[in-house]
Amino acid sequence: MPAVVLIGAQWGDEGKGKATDLLSSRLDYVVKFNGGNNAGHTVVVGDEKYALHLLPSGILTAGVTPVIANGVVVDIEVLFEEIEGLESRGVDTSQLKISANAHVITQYHRTLDKVTERFLGKRQIGTTGRGIGPSYADKINRVGIRMQDLFDENILRQKVEGALDQKNHLLVKVYNRRAIGVDEIVDDLLGYVERLRPMVTDTSLLLHRALEAGQTVLFEGGQATMLDVDHGTYPFVTSSNATSGGAVTGSGIAPNRIDRVIGIVKAYTTRVGSGPFPTELFDEWGEFLAEKGHEFGTTTGRRRRTGWYDAPIARYTARVNGVTDFVLTKLDVLTGIDRIPVAVAYDVDGVIMEEVPVSQSDFHHAKPVYEEFPGWTEDISGARSFEDLPANAQSYVRELEAMSGARFSAIGVGPGREEIVQLHDLLD
Ligand code: GDP
Ligand code: IMO
Ligand code: MG
């Protein structure tokens, strides 16, 4: 099973980091192919808790080569902070490889992210403020700075000048901010060159050779399907392709290489930031899920919005990503609920729709049509096989599986590495 893609099935924070970590001992490479340090993955290994933003979660496992591929936007300051944080805790990061084609997030991207959000007022996206959108905008506008530009000072200076030409007008005249000097950006970036030199390479070729040699490569998506710039709830999305197609364009491997697509789906739903969310709860159950599930962002600390499981979203995710296996996470959080509602369809202004509507206005109006399933009260965190789960938990899982468009191959029953029920081998 050489090339495996792992993606988020909802609006992020499904437990992708934990799932990647779980598989890592059997992997040769873990590749981050989209997004940047807007991601936040919490991985719990024994008594140790790690918060990762930019580095792929496979970095925690010795013997895995972590790769930041061309589809990622890299804030170099954050990169080295994260590397130093891990090294100080004994994690070896020396194998890290970064694509020469990955784009760089600079100070002007962070500034623009924050000021444009402020200008949007009530219409704001609720971004993480990390400069993600402005950096991808520069990439598409062909005024971005790439990793390889750092190794040619003349080129770097020309490119920063080109980018700032436009942006300083915008910053000063529209947003009433100070102009940013070319030298401060160039000097800052050049300060990292020698440390970056051994890491920056042709990662497309590296991954091609690894796959040719029969090695196992996992492509770890950041964000999630409903935050994908093409297939998510636009404009309330991130600025990259978080779906499985993004693993191809974001890494330079071919689509026919991919053998398996693993979707990570939570047993309920959460969302950070603005945008439609049909099953969102504003009552004590919303509070229950947030508290019991510790639904506070790894990146910004914001309380995540919470709601019940949404089966049309899982089906949509299965379809647009080609999900072969789902990992259902955080089932333990639902323990103690008498009857558990699940959205099976939407009522859109009186019309019943079983699929995610293509019209954003319809999705904004969508009211969930719920079915209820009996809950359980037993602690399930010690379950290691499906039979260990209470009968009602088993039937909840089977009902969700039947509605979600792909088989459930593992079930998370706690944050720890070992707190998992395996149903099918995810890599075989
Ligand atoms: P990611 O962004 O998809 O990697 O997910 P996050 O790390 O942002 O959020 C998932 C949170 O749930 C983390 O704090 C994990 O430690 C935790 N987690 C993952 N799987 C489970 C599970 O099965 N049960 C419980 N209770 N927590 C889990
Ligand atoms: P992981 O990988 C949840 C959300 C932000 C905002 C929108 C756009 O941990 O699942 P951006 O800064 O990307 O321009 O913000 O996307 N967002 C996430 N929400 N999990 C994430 O990553 C996210 N990354 C971005 O909250 O609504
Ligand atoms: Mg997260």
TrEMBL record:
EC number: 6.3.4.4
Keywords annotated in UniProt: Cytoplasm, GTP-binding, Ligase, Magnesium, Metal-binding, Nucleotide-binding, Purine biosynthesis
Ligand binding (Mg(2+)): D13, G40
Location within or outside the cell: Cytoplasm
GO terms (BP aspect): 'de novo' AMP biosynthetic process; IMP metabolic process
Domain of life (superkingdom): Bacteria
Catalytic activity line of the entry: IMP + L-aspartate + GTP = N(6)-(1,2-dicarboxyethyl)-AMP + GDP + phosphate + 2 H(+)
Transmembrane segments: none
Location of the active site: D13, H41, K139
Note on how the cofactor is bound: Binds 1 Mg(2+) ion per subunit.
Primary role: Plays an important role in the de novo pathway of purine nucleotide biosynthesis. Catalyzes the first committed step in the biosynthesis of AMP from IMP.
Protein name as it appears in the record: Adenylosuccinate synthetase
Gene source species: Agromyces kandeliae
Gene name linked to the record: purA
